[in-house]
Amino acid sequence: MRSIWCGVAICLSLGLSGCQQQAPDEKADGKALFAHYCEECHGDTGNGKFLKGIPSNTATRLTRQEVVNLLLYGRQDQPAMPTFRDQLSPRQARKVADYLLFTLKKY
Predict the structure, then answer these.
(1) Which single residue of 10, 19, 34, 106 has CA 20 to 30 Å from 98?
(2) 9-27: per-residue pLDDT in tens?
């Protein structure tokens, strides 16, 4: 019986450890939002992963509103890019776009 409870405790702790990465709240800045939603694919500098076919988003020629629309609704010419309509508010998407276009793009 004791080993069952130990097993349950281990499973619960392992399961809960995956819950630590909560989505940023509405007050989060563009850097935190970019880190949470974009960094895994595009990297922390936004340079992408060329060998995996993930483009640099710092080289984008999209306008701020086009980046916001891409994040929220996607584009037919970029089907591999996920959309974040259910995760990001329009305000958060604008923060990500501003961070990308006015901070990362400078480098």
Answers:
(1) 19
(2) 444 343 433 444 688 888 9
**Could you tell me which of 103, 100, 84 has the C-alpha nearest to residue 48?**
100
H or E stretch covering 30: helix 30-37
101 three-state secondary structure? helix
Q: Are 87 and 23 in contact (CB under 8 A)?
A: yes
- Please, what is the Cα angle at 48 between 41 and 65, to 5 degrees? 85
Classified as helix, coil or strand, 1 is: coil
| pTM greater than 0.85 | no
Within 38-103, residue ranges assigned H as helices are 39-42, 64-73, 90-102
> In DSSP terms, which residues pair with 49 in a beta bridge?
54
Alpha carbons within 13 A on the beta-carbon side of 15 = 6
DSSP reduced 3-state for 11: helix
Closest CA to 101 of 67, 73, 55, 52: 67
Smallest CA-to-CA distance from 84 within 98, 70, 94, 97 is with: 70
